[in-house]
Description:
single chain, about 210 residues, alpha/beta, Rossmann fold, 2 domains, 8 strands, about 40% helix
Amino acid sequence: MQNQIKAVAFDAFGTLVEIRDKRRPYARLAKAAAQPLARSPMCEPIDLDAMVHLCGLTLDASEMAILHADLQAELASTQPYPEAEEVLKELRGLGVRIAVASNLALPYARPIEEKFGHLLDVSCMSFEVGFVKPDAGFYAELCRRLNHLPQEVLMIGDTWRCDYEGATVAGLHAIHLDRQGKIEVDQSYVFSSNLCSVLAYIGGRQQSNSD
């Protein structure tokens, strides 16, 4: 069967999980930076303390405590979307390899691993690989880690430019996740309101390839 989907890669936040108590400590630091950032926490494993130093800031103990408390509040409030775990389990039952492929800073990988690590075959995080979606280098590394050709991989995520356009330009299949129902029904690209569409998409590809 040509072009059969053999692996599915999921964006993390907004796709598999959501932060219910958003504090954005990294973004606040970047906004307050006293100097241009020479490195990016999205492209390197930079923890919160290192981010303060990178921004050229000097914070006292109470200010650091607030930042760390905000980060922990975000991580603790990270919850899976209702259908996420069941969809991943069904994919594993089909023998499909599963990846998480996300632009994020180092600390935000922890809740993904805690909640879905037992269901994932591959992790491809921007801070690990040095590329951010939609860069072609990100998708090349994702396919390398999955050990599959781009046309054998399906990407699903909630950001059109990063998760749909970037993936399709790199040769992958893609579904744009639209949980808020903002996409007009006459759009020509593939979109869905929840993750269950992945199973239907794969079933449809397998059926068309066997005809």
